[in-house]
Amino acid sequence: MQVEETPLKDCYLLKPKIFRDERGIFLETYQRRQLAEISGIDAEFVQDNQSVSKYGVVRGLHYQTGEFAQTKIVRAIYGRVLDVVVDLRPDSPTFKQTYSVILDDENLYQLYVPKGFGHGFSTLSEKSVFAYKCDDYYRPGSEAGIIYNDPELAIDWQLPENDIILSEKDRNLPTLKQAFG
Ligand SMILES: Cc1cn([C@H]2C[C@H](O)[C@@H](COP(=O)(O)OP(=O)(O)O[C@H]3O[C@H](C)C(=O)[C@H](O)[C@H]3O)O2)c(=O)[nH]c1=O
Q: Hey, which pathway is this one from (predicted)?
């Protein structure tokens, strides 16, 4: 596995080693010891999630607040997504900065998203299967988010606006200014 820094502090792009042969491919999608040795990252993951989305779906930007904030390792098992994170840690040198990267079933890249980040993704293929590890449990009462079209963040989800599909919850998320001043 290769671990690359991103422009956002403590957020890393993980590039697993892919073994290819005439049958197809094999890769270790998570290996705690190797990740810790390479990067010093040693989160204790307790929950795996998976979502399936059709083309045009944007999920996010979401995060859990306070002591229930989640570190995540996210990846696309099938299809192609644009993964987007925003640093929402007021003390961070990259506070309010965003980073986006294509995760798909060809590059098999993963993104390490630290606690205190907002996270979302858009589905660019006909269908995406998205999986991620969390180092804390789902706490409905601590869920929060920033609206996908926040004017300060100006995220390009790489989708025509008319194609974007959002949940009712995501349509009503606050702006960055409303949430963080
Ligand atoms: C996140 C979560 C949801 N749920 C239930 C709650 C709802 O009844 C249903 C769908 O939840 P939601 O609409 O919040 O799912 P997403 O929009 O995919 O949310 C996720 O999307 C972005 C990309 C993230 O990074 C977060 O991990 C997560 O918020 O699953 C659970 O039971 N457990 C969970 O951990």
A: Carbohydrate biosynthesis; dTDP-L-rhamnose biosynthesis
